[in-house]
Design a protein that fits this description.
Structural class: alpha+beta
Radius of gyration: 17 Å
Number of domains: 1
Pfam family, one: Asp23
Largest sheet: 4 strands, mixed
Organism: Lentzea tibetensis
Protein name: Asp23/Gls24 family envelope stress response protein
Shape: globular
CATH topology: Alpha-Beta Plaits
CATH class: Alpha Beta
CATH superfamily: Cation efflux protein, cytoplasmic domain
CATH architecture: 2-Layer Sandwich
Family: Belongs to the asp23 family.
Number of strands: 6
């Protein structure tokens, strides 16, 4: 995803920012995991394979892998302004109200992604795939 900032007087590009989906996914995962009541992200089968490939690539380059399983970033660069949709699969604690936790995740993720990238997600979809009987969440 590219963002061009133009000088208002001359229309000449001053800066070009390139923000990749894995960066947005890492911000999303971190923000979701900081919400009280979230026990873990649920990557699913496809997400697990993608997450393992991402982790292997980062280990080869000597970087610590960022857990992003359970997060999908859908970008749309076809319009004038780029847009992103985020999909998060997670497990909550049985000690917390699931709907409230999902709503708090939506708010925390929207805020974190906007602050870190300057892009406001058009949608943040939270799917609760499991309610854990153990642990109290974060």
């Amino acid at each position: 995803m590219k963002t061009d900032l133009h000088d208002t007087a001359g229309g000449v590009p001053r800066t070009e920012s390139v923000i990749t989906s894995p960066v947005i996914a890492a911000i999303t995962a971190h923000a979701a995991m900081t919400v009280a009541g979230v026990v873990r992200l649920e990557p699913g089968l496809l997400g697990l394979a993608t997450s393992l490939a991402h982790a292997a690539r980062q280990r080869i380059t000597g970087l610590d892998p960022t857990p992003t399983g359970g997060v999908r970033v859908v970008t749309d660069d076809t319009h004038t302004a780029p847009s992103i949709r985020l999909e998060i699969d997670l497990a909550t604690s049985c000690h917390d109200q699931t709907a409230a936790v999902a709503r708090d995740v939506q708010r925390a993720v929207t805020r974190a992604v906007t602050v870190a990238t300057g892009l406001t997600p058009t949608a943040v979809t939270v799917s609760v795939l499991d309610i854990s009987l153990k642990g109290g969440g974060r």
